[in-house]
Here is the input.
Amino acid sequence: MAIKGRRQSDNDNDMEAPLLGSDSFVVDLHAAYSNSNITSQVALVGAEVCPIESLDYELVENDLFKQDWRSCNRAHIFQYVVLKWAFCFLIGALAGGTGFLINLAIENVAGTKFVVTSNMMLAKRYGLAFAVFAASNFVLTMFAAGITVFFAPEAAGSGIPEVKAYLNGVDAPGIFSLRTLVVKVIGTIAAVSSSLHIGKAGPLVHTGACIASLLGQGGSRRHHLTCKWFRYFKNDRDRRDLVTCGAGAGIAAAFRAPVGGVLFALEAVSSWWRISLLWRAFFTTAVVAVVLRALIDVCKSGKCGLFGKGGLIMFDVTSENTAYHFGDLPPVIILGVIGGILGSLYNFLLDKVLRLYTRINEKGKVYKLLLAATLSICTSCCIFCLPWLATCKPCPADAAEACPSIGRSGNFKKYQCPPGHYNDLASLFFNTNDDTIRNLYSAGTDDVFQPSSIITFFVASYFLGILSYGIAAPSGLFVPVILTGATYGRLIGMLMGSYSNLDHGLFAVLGSASLLGGSMRITVSVCIMLLELTDNLLLLPLVMLVLLISKTVADVFTENVYDLLVKLKGFPYLETHAEPYMRQLTVADVVTGPLQVFNGVEKVGNIVHVLRTTGHNGFPVVDEPPFSDSSVLYGLILRAHLIVLLKKKEFIHSRTLSGFDTSKRFCADDFGKRGSMANNESIEDLKLSEEEMEMYVDLHPFTNTSPYTVVETMSLAKALILFREVGLRHLLVIPKSTSRAPVVGILTRHDFMPEHILGLHPFLSKKRWQRLRLGEFDFTKSTLSVY
Here is the structure.
């Protein structure tokens, strides 16, 4: 039945299939991204527009699940706890192994390419060297883009916005599938090895999350790879925790920074956190560190080819006796201020470039590949041609390594220089990103690089990092920002040489911190990661100061890069705070239209009709006489549970309460959420006869009898905090008066989106507000900052 006056607005996935398949709709949606997000029903996942839906972290308390939990003894609880820790161990081990594999492959593929090119340069075959270098980069880029476009568009980009949205309660098909994982790993190796100015840290976060999600799916019934124990994890709450651990493991694998990985998961991607999750995340990243240490020890024997000079080996890169004084603080403060400005400009330009790329990519797969090909050719030209602008420098007499460095990584690339000389700009361009960072961070190298070479490399890396991100291939922002920041820090060190006694390598570390703080606005995790990278605790005060200054300055201009990407992709992300205008509205102001409601004992035909004509995922269940004295809200039943009931066909012939024992005909596993690789049941797949359509089904044993409810006069701001903190998918709105219908509407994620609220109440967009947040307090003033 439908109650008029209020609408059930579960638009998280209320999309009709014909509409999603419309080419004109996709084009319009991409165009919408160029301006603002106008829908919370679809989003740009990787490089493909996909329907999205909300996750549900609420515990379903119906008769069947209550009986199932009552049947659990201490042995079941012990199994559950052991499985959680076992999964964390497996996530850490697999993420560590995958991270090592990616680094090993990148160092060998890219290293071989640079060695072959350098050997041709030594033979003065410059044209052939460029042809081989550009062709290698082109093949690697097109391979990465091709497998992404045709096999797993969800693998494009870093994957951090998708993980961040998932941990906020937004799910999209395919983001954690096995196909996405395989393409992410292979595509990252090819894309990073192609000399594009991209990193592997973001893809490793996505990779760790994929591994965690696949482990937490409870196996596969179709392939007979399941176990009764795994049923405990067939819910969004436990999968969320595993994905959080996987994201932390990805960062730990990228930088060999276990503590930094935990803090990154806490600070950058997770929306819910608790102490027990902290312990498991720390255990997971510790396993990553142990696995990496064991595998790297194997490489020290020379069994890993070119791997070992760069990649994960970035420790001890600064002076062991780092000394600084009060007089060194002004240059550091200036570095933090400029880093904040450069970081905010980086985000601004990246936003403009991604909007342009969206318009190009919407034209089809061919244009996605053409964009990747164009960037590959331009990048190869820049990397090969710019070093010719630098003048050759004589090798220092006291160099700690061979000069020039031929056939390996190092600070002294010969390039086109005569014997006994090196090209410092080629030393920056003709290395992997990890090796270049290592060179810039190295202490005692103040005279190795010329100011003109540092300026040239800074400008090139700054803009190549912006232009390279956004193609249809796995790519990360973390390493390019670290590299660009290190170059900028070196430059500041050169300019401030007479005013500071700090080593230029130390300035490079502080430059990375300042640009990371200005672009990504993550402070604690970046601080710890840099300390773990450099293995130098003496840097802590300076890194903390730089991060705080750069973040504060950048916050004045733009938002952080991951929030920017989440909005560009169209994910309906719920912020931790409520917008000021939400305090002017009540929950009744944002739910309109008819509400679909089921009776406690409902006709099968009515259920089928509602499920086929709507895309709602939750339905209020109302009892009316003779099942109750008056119309009363009994609870909420989910769409997936209704489909299970219809599939089982446990119907009754009359509108009466069923007398059978549900625990004997159903089990809790029947209603467990299926994994991303499973084919979810659809109402269209059910075949019911006309006789069955006239029968009834008792919904009482399967209805959540304690759903979260709010009174219709509650402010929208207050409802948002409740909705987000509890992790809800549905929030029932009940009337203030008992003389009305027992439920007047349902709040879903869509109802808290600004485009929905301002669409219903456009006068609010004309208001003028100012919001100043200090700690946990919000101060609003109706004079500034238009919403």
Residues 646 and 688 are 9 Å apart (CA to CA). The radius of gyration is 29 Å. Confidence is low (pLDDT under 50) at residues 9-39, 310-316, 768-787.
